[in-house]
Design goal:
The structure holds 2 protein chains of 2 kinds. Chain A is about 25% helix and about 25% strand. Chain A is of the alpha+beta class. In chain A, strands 6-8-3-1-10 form a 5-stranded mixed beta sheet, with no helix packed on it. In chain A, helix 3 crosses helix 4. Chain A starts with a helix and ends in a 14-residue tail after the last helix. Classes of the chains: A alpha+beta, B mainly beta. At the A-B interface, helix 1, helix 2 and helix 4 of A face helix 1 and strand 19 of B.
Chain lengths: ~230, ~525
């Protein structure tokens, strides 16, 4: 009996030893293709920084796949979550959500519309990647793209981190002046060095000209608008 | 039974040792067979060289093998790819030959005029599969790559000529290839190091300044690229350019890199910022002075260095200002005062923030980072100010000297150039070329051109193509014809007599040495 046990152990060890010499299988990705939001996952959009003639605009969202490229175009399925308060087809509409053949990523336009109700309200849209025949949802924390939509002039979300060093404390009068002076409409993203330098110069020259022409520009708090 | 068990245990133990020993990594090389080592060398691969479009690129490296003389067992592959830093590392690799010796006509794809390329030879031993490589750094140029570019005024209209290194000239280059008229030509600006502004391909820049604005031109073909206004985020309302250049703070692998673009238009500063970040870079809006207004008028000179990327002079308030390159503060891109005070102050022999004179001329001195400025005082005296653009926290002073100049006619000079090898400034007054020595404060040599042949432009170049010493190019105009005289400057800065003269120009307003 003891001999049988020892032979069995010996045989097992031999099998184990030879098994360890087995060549590794190549580690190729062979799972279903996944898709996720590539960069920024949210933004605040306001029509208030755009001229009155602008009644429609677009927000562009980047999506990227996990897996291999395909020889054919593939659709991304985007569905609004329960947190969405805007009405699809009226306040917004998702444009072609396609990963084109032989490409890893795509920029998907989301069209937004300037509706009267946005003058006094802010709506939310959360678009979530859903499974379809082409893709499964990718990274769980990178599936949603959220944006707010309004026609009210709002303090940019990055004012205190980005713009305060160039333009000082926020006021609505100052912000409107900046929009008019520079023509810049998207204030929620970080500028490149050459752009921030130009915006600062342009705004200062415009304020200098305004003050020389009309006297000091006063904001809604009774303070003279100035840039540090 | 015990004996059998012991035998089994021994066999088991030996087998275990055998298997585990197979897991030991062999670090020895005693049993490695020597392989044929291929070595490819060529002195031409040591540095970048220029090949003209239309010429054949001929390369024949030296080949050696350690174990064989049989060349038939080798496989040769020549590939080429764009080596421009602004191009993705994934620039396509294009095979251009399978021969040992390369002979390839440089014309069209894959070579683009003005672009740098790596031409790589791979030599593969078909027996072992081992490949050796040799890289050549090639710049695609044309005949206008090296020589003197000359800007002429033909009855108020600008044109270009080119003087080749053999002192032959080609005239009418501008009008031959451009339709836009240059009205009132003023100045040539070239940037002898590459600029990456994401407006056009990375490369050297050429601007022609004129009364009616300025344009950017292709550095090698001299074909117009952009109008003046296009180079700004907001085109200036008044176009009156006097400076459009790039300063360099740092040198990488022997090549200076652009840091700050400085344009002076109508006496106002516009700056431009490059440095590896994405996005289109253009000249910005008018910079304000420290008082927050535009009440200044800059002299048409700018210098830059490691500590201070750009220094300019305001002829209104009669003082220097500095301009920062990249800095995430709102003052970056404005005119700023120099530090003052006992610990960090930069001024000693004169006050950078309060000079009190008018700048007439400024150019490089004979020490790297040092500059000479010729100033006119309120009582019409000429002063030489010397300062530098590099300092340190422990030695902050940048002012070096202030001298009442003993240089006859300097206040009415018609053209001037500073030497970067000896302590001299060459200046022209009517038909007299003078060599002013900054160290002895005296004019130590003069050269007279024929009466009525007046000096209109002077340029000094330290690194001449033949590497036989610096050259001074002096342009003259007698009322009907222009000439360029070339002087070989000796080690002491002496002018001597001219070595070459090239006639056949109209009135020359500026000239630059391209390399």
């Amino acid at each position: 009996m003891e001999k049988i046990i020892k032979n069995t152990v010996l045989l097992f060890l031999l099998i184990l030893a030879f098994a360890s010499c087995t060549k590794n299988k190549e580690l190729l990705f062979n799972e279903a293709n996944l898709v996720y939001v590539e960069y920024q996952d949210s933004t605040d959009y306001t029509f208030a920084t755009r001229p009155a003639a602008v009644v429609m605009d677009s927000i562009v969202v980047s999506y990227r796949i996990i897996g291999s490229v395909s020889a054919k175009d593939r659709q991304i399925k985007l569905v609004p979550t329960a947190a969405t308060t805007a009405k699809a087809g009226y306040h917004y509409k998702v444009g072609p959500a396609v990963i084109k053949a032989n490409e890893f990523s795509s920029k998907v336009p989301i069209y937004v519309y300037r509706r009267p109700g946005l003058k006094d309200s802010s709506l939310v849209v959360v678009l979530q990647v859903a499974e379809n025949e082409d893709f499964k949802p990718g990274f769980p924390k990178r599936l949603n793209y959220k944006f707010t939509l309004t026609d009210v002039l709002k303090k940019p979300s990055n004012w205190e981190t980005t713009w305060v060093s160039y333009f000082g404390s926020y006021s609505e009068v100052k912000f409107k002046f900046l929009i008019t002076a520079t023509g810049k409409t998207d204030w929620n993203s970080s500028p490149l060095p050459q752009d921030s330098r130009y915006l600062s110069q342009k705004a200062r020259n415009a304020l200098l000209e305004y003050n020389q022409t009309y006297g000091p520009l006063i904001d809604e708090n009774g303070q003279q608008v100035f840039f540090p | 039974m015990n004996f059998k068990n012991n035998n089994l245990s021994s066999v088991f133990f030996m087998l275990s040792l055998f298997f585990f020993s197979s897991c030991y990594k062999d670090h020895s090389n005693k049993d490695l067979a020597p392989t044929n080592k291929i070595d490819v060398t060529d002195a031409k691969a040591a540095s970048q060289f220029v090949v003209f479009q239309g010429d054949s690129l001929k390369l024949k490296p030296t080949l050696s093998q350690s174990l064989s003389n049989n060349i038939s067992q080798l496989e040769f592959t020549w590939i080429v790819y764009n080596n421009n830093g602004a191009v993705s590392l994934a620039a396509p690799r294009i095979e251009i030959s399978k021969d040992y010796e390369l002979k390839y006509l440089v014309k069209g794809d894959p070579f683009i005029l003005g672009e740098p390329y790596i031409v790589r030879l791979g030599v593969k031993d078909k027996t072992t599969g081992v490949t050796s490589y040799l890289n050549y750094s090639v710049l695609i140029g044309n005949k206008y790559g090296t020589g003197w570019l000359v800007l002429e005024d033909k009855a108020g209209k600008g044109d270009l000529s080119f003087v080749f290194t053999d002192f032959t000239a080609e005239h009418g280059i501008y009008t031959d290839r451009n339709t836009a008229t240059i009205t009132g030509p003023r100045k040539l600006e070239i940037t002898p190091f590459p600029v990456t502004d994401d407006i056009s391909t990375t490369g050297k820049r050429l601007y022609i300044l004129a009364d009616n604005g300025s344009q950017e031109y292709n550095y090698l073909t001299m074909v117009k690229k952009f109008d003046y206004g296009f180079l700004f985020f907001s085109a200036p309302a008044i176009q009156n350019p006097t400076v459009m250049t790039w300063t360099s703070q740092y040198t990488y692998n022997g090549v200076r890199s652009a840091a700050l673009g400085v344009a002076i238009n109508n006496g106002k500063l516009h700056s431009n910022l490059v440095g590896g970040f994405p996005g289109v870079k253009k000249w910005g809006d008018v910079a304000l002075n420290p008082q927050g207004n535009q009440n200044y008028s800059l002299a048409p000179y700018v210098v830059g260095g490691e500590t201070y990327p750009a220094i300019v002079y305001d002829n209104n308030s009669k003082r220097f200002y500095r301009i920062q390159a990249y800095n995430p503060t709102p003052v970056a891109g404005t005119l700023e005062v120099f530090p003052s005070g006992s610990t960090s102050g930069v001024s000693s022999v004169f006050d950078m923030n309060d000079v009190g004179m008018t700048m007439l001329f400024q150019d490089s001195a004979d020490v790297v980072n040092d500059y000479n400025a010729i100033m006119k005082s309120a009582d019409n005296q000429a002063y030489l100010l010397r300062y530098k653009t590099k300092n340190s926290a422990t030695a902050p002073t940048i002012t070096l000297g202030k001298t009442l100049m003993n240089a006859p006619g300097i206040l009415n000079y018609s053209a001037a150039a500073g030497s970067t090898t000896t302590p001299h400034i060459y200046y022209g007054n009517a038909n007299i070329l003078s060599r002013y020595e900054t160290s002895s404060n005296a004019v130590v040599e003069t050269y007279s051109f024929p009466n009525g042949e007046n000096i209109t432009a002077i340029k000094y170049t330290k690194g001449y193509y033949d590497k036989k010493g610096p050259r001074l190019a002096v342009a003259t105009w007698n009322g009907s014809a222009g000439k360029v005289y070339y002087f070989a400057i000796n080690a002491n800065g002496a002018i001597g007599s001219y070595t070459n003269v090239v006639p056949g120009f109209s009135k020359i307003v500026d000239l630059v040495y391209k390399y």
